[in-house]
TrEMBL record:
EC number: 5.1.1.7
Any one GO BP annotation for this protein: lysine biosynthetic process via diaminopimelate
Gene name, Swiss-Prot/TrEMBL: dapF
Family statement drawn from the similarity comment of this UniProt entry: Belongs to the diaminopimelate epimerase family.
Function text: Catalyzes the stereoinversion of LL-2,6-diaminopimelate (L,L-DAP) to meso-diaminopimelate (meso-DAP), a precursor of L-lysine and an essential component of the bacterial peptidoglycan.
Lineage, uppermost ranks: Bacteria, Bacillati, Actinomycetota, Actinomycetes, Micromonosporales
EC class name: isomerase
Organism: Micromonospora chersina
Name the UniProt record assigns to this protein: Diaminopimelate epimerase
Signal peptide: none
Annotated site (Could be important to modulate the pK values of the two catalytic cysteine residues): 156, 211
Length: 280
């Protein structure tokens, strides 16, 4: 099977071309591909399939040719992946499956339609505006923090650290404990501290994230959007541009009255072939 490896600020993916939806992609196969010792390694799998050929993309086939079939590294589904969408678009353009134009490129996802624009090494995707809808707590390493629950097409819990705590000192080797009644399908948990001012933006936040289905990752695009929305709210703003630094690099998020743009680098690093493991 052919594959491409790509990443957005260190959030890495195994990309599988499957235009006609012929591949029998299973949770076990996804987990094997994402295994960093016995497979290719990645935070998730991006299957590139025509929207008309995928049952979850067919409803959007009239608006987008391609459906981003995203799976977490443990073989579970995810509704949306912001960095994955940016890497997905980079793949479409570099392989000639889509052609650049002045208009934004539409891509179908489980969370609906997203649009992308490319500016050199940067790829920006337009997603739904983050919706803050509740408060909840997360417990990590014996520390319980209150955070904001945010819907970005997938669920997030954004927890600001007290000034006395070091973001880098958090132990994220295991999932934070959260209320399963509020997050029955799990949740991505972001931990944040303020950063130094960045010229041209309305604020700067440092972030680490534990992603459901993938553990701690170097970056989470939808998580950065959730963090930006919370930071703007705390600053008394509903719209604006935020810089969010993740362990894998820097992302820029612009939130308007009705949408959210996530921008940052998206890179393809390798192509090859892999022999599929035997069915388990």
């Amino acid at each position: 099977m052919e594959f491409t490896k790509g990443h957005g600020t260190g959030n890495d993916f195994v990309i599988l071309p499957d235009p006609d939806g012929a591949l029998d992609l299973t949770p076990g196969l996804v987990a094997a591909l994402c295994d960093r010792r016995r497979g290719i390694g990645g935070d998730g799998v991006l299957r590139v399939v025509r929207a008309a050929k995928h049952p979850e993309g067919a409803a959007l086939a009239g608006e987008a040719e391609w459906f981003m079939d995203y799976w977490n590294s443990d073989g579970s589904f995810a509704e949306m992946c912001g960095n994955g969408a940016r890497v997905f678009v980079r793949y479409l353009l570099e392989t000639g499956l889509a052609t650049p134009s002045g208009a934004a490129l539409p891509v179908a996802t489980r969370a609906g339609l997203v649009r992308a624009r490319v500016e050199g090494a940067e790829v920006a995707v337009e997603m739904r505006r983050p919706r803050l809808y509740d408060t909840a707590t997360a417990t990590v390493g014996g520390l319980t923090l209150t955070g904001a629950a945010v819907d970005v097409g997938n669920p997030h819990l954004v927890c600001a650290l007290p000034a006395s705590l070091d973001l880098g000192g958090l132990d994220l080797t295991r999932a934070p404990d959260v209320d399963p009644s509020l997050f029955p399908s799990g949740v991505n948990v972001e931990f944040t501290t303020p950063g130094e001012p960045v010229e041209g933006t309305d604020g700067h936040v440092l972030m680490r994230v534990y992603e459901r289905g993938s553990a701690e990752t170097l970056s989470c695009g939808t998580g950065a959007c959730a963090v930006a929305a919370v930071a703007l709210r705390d600053a008394g703003r509903e719209t604006g541009t935020m810089t969010v630094d993740v362990p894998g690099g820097r992302l820029t998020i612009t939130i308007t009255d009705d949408t959210c743009w996530l921008s940052g680098p998206a890179v393809l690093v390798a192509t090859g072939e892999i022999t599929l493991p035997p069915p388990s």
